[in-house]
Amino acid sequence: MTATIPTPTSAPVEEVGLPRTSAAPPEEGVATFESLNPANGDVVGVHAKHSAGDVDAAVALARETARWWGALDFAERAEHLLTWRSVLTRRMAQLAELVHRETGKPHADAQLEIALAIDHVAWAAKNAKKVLGRRSVSPGLIMANQAASVEYKPLGVVGVIGPWNYPVFTPMGSIAYALAAGNTVVFKPSEYTPGVGQWLADTLTEVVGGRAVLQCVTGLGETGAALCSSGVDKLAFTGSGATGKKVMAACAETLTPVIIEAGGKDALIVDEDADVAAAAEAALWSGMSNAGQTCIGTERVYVHRAVFHEFVEEILAQAKGLRAGPTGSKIGPITMPSQVDVIRSHVQDAVDSGAKVLMGGPDAIGERFVQPTIMTFVPESSREMTDETFGPTLAINPVSSMEEAIERTNATRYGLAGAVFSKSRGEEIARQIRSGMTSVNAVIAFAGVPSLPFGGVGESGFGRIHGPDGLREFTYAKAVTRQRFKPPLNLTSFQRDEKAEKALALITTLLHGGKKTLRVP
Where's the active site on this chain (predicted)? Predict the structure, then answer.
């Protein structure tokens, strides 16, 4: 990787075909690795293993480019990002094909995540000024002679380490918001989806005339570690909790702040007055889509005893014929080969602990594909209930009350997302769930609302992407005061006399010393 700004493409964005580096192999002599189609093992692309030196060069170039990008006003940045949004939209089929080949997920699922990502790009571009722009604030009575304002300034260079399960939607939640806030970005995609990451960087590079606003560095764990220690101003990571801890430790060496999204063990609660058919449909899709490889997908289901058997019959009826396979199936392969062993161990542990298998089971786990597995009466101490499985499995257990459902849902070290199905108590129950996000009578709806924050608590991580919180996450607050007239009480001077001190005490007492009843609207 060279530390020079790429030459702008001469062709209009609308006429450019495949991005140049997506199709071109790395230079001769450069260490490489292959991205493989998990459905059949075919080679999708060959990519460079970028070294620490390459990463440092990319960050240096990003810092140089940040002087230009950060100096643009919100409207100018929005124009570039909305143009990129349009390019992504027109080339959606091309990108979806690449996502399909690198992850194995069906084209329809790839298109869904791209569409959601495009919506987030548009929201971030259009709302950055409103959220981050300078605004006046009240100085208060004691500082009434001051005009006060606050604005949110870009940090500079943001590093993003993305996952393989949603290689467009998930990292875009950091990339788009960091860019809209005025930062440049160095993006390290998963080694399983490097082509997608390079595609995204190449298309934006075309839009901004060849400038290194978004760069992609590819490689294995060493490349990600290099990005952590490269001196970026903030790093956003999505992945496993174990890797997240390593990211935090590496970033701590340079006091680089981090955003961590580290997965979950999300639950779906079904109350006795719920629309059972709708709840079953949502649980099945949330648990099985993308082969269960969804951090905010359902892995546990707690159903009120009054409708438990009805729910189980309904979900089994809806799951009939649902299969994982290479072509024409609604469920694709397990993208990361090592995850197959994790899924197998969780299912086997549940069976050994006394769980009842209604569909699938240990024999449904193949080398590349895992068939849908549904179990009931799964012991709460089994790994199927305590650890993130990240496969197409559902554990469905009955509960005597919603209070029991809430208690079991919260009895986890994770706290990312979840869902509640209830006609009368949905929001009441949702507010008692210890998680960053919960949908009522739907699943993962919060992820599709660009104005809502996305993130978790506990071992699901911290920090937020999406929405106003996501924009501010990639900035620092800049406070400015300006004296409008000489203060009646000069408090910041050695000339302050006893009269001024008494006046200050009196004003403070009048403002804050009395007892007042707090009226909550």
Answer: 261
Which of 417, 19, 400 shows the shortest CA–CA distance to 198? 19
How many beta carbons lie within 10 A of that of residue 222, not counting itself? 13
Who contacts 89 (Cβ-Cβ below 8 Å, separation ≥6)?
118
With a CB cutoff of 8 Å and minimum separation 6, the contacts of 32 are: 25, 26, 46, 47, 48, 49
Cα distance between residue 207 and residue 30, in whole Å: 28
Say which residue the tokens 């459905």 belong to.
39
For 59, the enclosing helix (H) or strand (E) is helix 52-71
DSSP assignment string, 257-306? -EEEE----EEEEE-TTS-HHHHHHHHHHHHHGGGG--TTSEEEEEEEGG
Question: N- to C-terminal Cα distance for the chain?
Answer: 58
Q: How many beta carbons lie within 10 A of that of residue 70, not counting itself?
A: 17
Query: Interior CA angle at 497 toward 496 and 500, to 5°?
Result: 85
Domain 266-413+417-450 listed as CATH 3.40.50.2000? no
The catalytic residue positions are 261
User: CATH homologous superfamily of domain 48-263+467-476?
Assistant: Aldehyde Dehydrogenase; Chain A, domain 1 (3.40.605.10)
CA torsion, ordered 187, 188, 192, 196, to nearest 10 deg: 20
Would the pTM count as exceeding 0.85?
Answer: yes
Outline which parts of the chain fall under CATH 3.40.309.10: 266-413+417-450
Q: Are 162 and 187 in contact (CB under 8 A)?
A: yes
Residue-level pLDDT, tens digit, the chain, 521 residues: 333 333 333 333 333 333 333 445 677 778 999 999 999 999 999 999 999 999 999 999 999 999 999 999 999 999 999 999 999 999 999 999 999 999 999 999 999 999 999 999 999 999 999 999 999 999 999 999 999 999 999 999 999 999 999 999 999 999 999 999 999 999 999 999 999 999 999 999 999 999 999 999 999 999 999 999 999 999 999 999 999 999 999 999 999 999 999 999 999 999 999 999 999 999 999 999 999 999 999 999 999 999 999 999 999 999 999 999 998 899 999 999 999 999 999 999 999 999 999 999 999 999 999 999 999 999 999 999 999 999 999 999 999 999 999 999 999 999 999 999 999 999 999 999 999 999 999 999 999 999 999 999 999 999 999 999 999 999 999 999 999 999 988 889 999 999 999 999 999 999 999 876 666 65
Q: How many Å apart are CA 371 and CA 329, to the nearest integer?
A: 11
Q: Which of 196, 486, 192, 141 is nearest to 336 (CA)?
A: 192
The two tokens of residue 304 are 């009120």
Pick from 158, 128, 235: nearest CA to 472: 128
Distances in Å between the Cα of 75 and the Cα atoms of 79, 80, 215, 383, 469 are: 6, 9, 22, 50, 20
